[in-house]
Task: structure prediction
Amino acid sequence: MRHFSFRVALCLAMAMAELATAHAADKPGADAVPEPRQTANASLENFMKANPDCLEFTDQCSHCAVVNGVAECSTAEIACIKRENQCTKRAGK
Result:
């Protein structure tokens, strides 16, 4: 019976060690440097600043309209290839 208890304890210890290792692998290291990412909002804001007379634009996935200085965009289509924003309607035209 002693031998069986030792086996069970050994299996449990190994399982716990494996879980701890797997959990530690999920956490980023303390020295990991996050990559700078440009958010979609920053991209929209940059486009709107560069094209102040643009009322509607698209990136071939979403279609956006500028309302009171804010871009209101449709949900992106399922299968699309995102491209640079292009103005589709300008003020005064």
